[in-house]
Amino acid sequence: MGGLSRAGKHWSAAEELTVIALVDRLTVAELARRLGRTEKAVTRWRERHGVYPTTAGWLTSGWAARESGYSAQRLTALARAGKTSARRVPGGRWWLFDGDDLPRRG
Fold this sequence. Notes:
Blueprint: H1 13-22, H2 28-35, H3 39-49, E1 58-60, H4 61-68, H5 72-80, E2 86-88, E3 95-98
Antiparallel strand pairs: 1-3, 2-3
């Protein structure tokens, strides 16, 4: 193991702040290289702490459900069927929905 390996080590406050500060500007791969961690470790940390790049105009499934009147599960089904503009959060299992293309219940 090289001196820069952080495998199996707890995350320091400085590492956590680095991810939070740079999540909008660097890819997971770039963050991993900078921190000396694996991409998988960075992705898991982000998922556990809910740290994702800002996505102006895109809504989480909860917000999209409130705005549209549909349940989050129904919106996910529509996204999987390609009936609304949505995308997966990189490295995660969450969906983001395009606020401008959101179906609305009448």
